[in-house]
Request: fold
Amino acid sequence: MREETKKPELYVVGAGPGDPELITVKAYKLLQQAKVILYDNLANKHLLDLAPENCERVYVGKQPYGEYTPQEKILELIKHYAFAKGQVIRLKGGDPFIFGRGFEEILFARENGIDTFFIPGITSMQASGFEDIPLTHRNLSESVWAITGTKKDGSLSDDLRLAMQSNATVVIYMGMKKLQEIAATYIAAGKGTVPAAIIQHASLPYQKSVKGLVKDLPEMAEAQKLTYPALVIIGQVVDIASYLNKGIL
Reply:
């Protein structure tokens, strides 16, 4: 009887918010056995050191507003290495299913006869805790909106206006080029004094941040020289320290 040939495999793995120790045990073990790693710009390069010496490491990053590897090329590489090596790891910053196009890559692999596996990662907004910003608090915020600052067509998501109608914490990914528009949207709705923060390089030793009011987001970023990759967090939880100091919470 002929032995059945094992199908090629794709592992879509979350690299976490930056700190290489903030990956799952499952991802850690998988990287130690890697044959090929396709890694992006936001995956900490120290994670590549976990792989064996003979592992092929291929950069497929996308610099914000700069040079990038087209998604079509990444898909070609996934297919090529999956069949050539039998296994490929797609290492993506944060969580691959939160504005990471990880599911698109999994669907492509399945359509091409490749078995797929998903290993979640800590998404960058969870690193807000390093700045004493809890995303929820029972007295301040009952929910979280995770919004992309730049849609496929380059515009700001209309969901922002919906999120503003609640007391939810609003987290904006990829929004550093939209600070002026974000501030103007809140000001137009009479909500310019809502607390806001910008966190750059969350979870890393050189993390930088600033807190203030949403109406002042552009000036805050300029004063502190903050740029991408960064998160914008808007909501009363940003100013939780003042509530605690006043004994309100």
